[in-house]
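We give the chain.
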Amino acid sequence: MMTFKQLEAIYWVTQLGGFSQAADKLHTTQSAISKRVQELETLFNMPLFDRTQRTSRLTEKGEEMYVVAKKLLEQRDAAVNQFISSQEVVRRLRIGVTELTAMTWLPRLVNLVQTHHPRVVLEPDVDMSMILRDKLLANEVDVIFVPDSCKDERFTTKRLGVVENAWFCKPGTFDGMKVKRLHDLSSHTFLTQGDKSGTGVLYNQWLSSVNMQPSNTIVCNSLLAIIGMTVSGLGFSYLPRQSMEPLVKSNLLEVLKISPTLPKTNYVAAFKSDQRSTLLSSIILLAQECCDFSRALQTP
């Protein structure tokens, strides 16, 4: 059977140009190197070195054996380094996030992962919650950070944080109108993300439970576009209250103080129950640490 010691012998004799040099490199004797080479020659019944020459020159078959030895030794060294290294193996982790997460605390999460897992590469997929749920089922992402609307017994969920939403409109839109209750808005245009959004699903269910049916609805899949349409005065919408504060202070948005108030939205990390791993658990703990919807584009 061929051994790594034999492969090392032919490799270093070739690399260093002689048997004595290889012996010094491998901390052994020249006779031990010669023996290992002879064992290989006997095993394959062919000479590996041309012994008619003064220098150690490979035969044609010896050249082939050298290439094989080089490849196998590199693979051995890589395997050894992988298992003795204190660092993680380079790994890619596909995370599905909503637009709101990407706009708020995703930069902080990326920084924490780079700090605690420098050999892990994050691959974010920004999409609507229900689309991310389907991607998780199809194994296109490893974990998703979404509103807690994806009830599925195939998933395990871990709580991340809470989003406090409020009703918003362009300042002055309802001046002079008696808007004190939610139903006072039923004749006005409602801007919403619809049934592909986790928050949209939860709030549509809630609106039905309080018998609120706006007469005119504009559905848009982009949170940023809904903010823009609200600022433009095209309708009223629910938006994350704290992260919209700069727009309120700039007099671009106005909070509608009406009742009943919107319920808070719980955010969770969801992953397939049969896909547990130590790395995934660690990433979720980091997400729990930095999950914060109060400010846009949070830096470390």
